[in-house]
Amino acid sequence: MTDDVVLRLDRVSAEDLYEVLRLLSEHIAAGAPIPELPAEADERLGRVFRFLGDSLGKGRVV
User: What is the pTM of this model?
Assistant: First the structure.
């Protein structure tokens, strides 16, 4: 058994994750404020984050 963690995402959640990582990196590099996500994307990414935290044994933080 390996220590791999595998996430299986629906396309919309995967696109949300891609966009938020891209936006974060661009805004951090530019020193610009990070925009707020639409509520639907925030909810989907919250579920992804909770699943990832559970998979890593980090517990619930959100």
Answer: 0.70
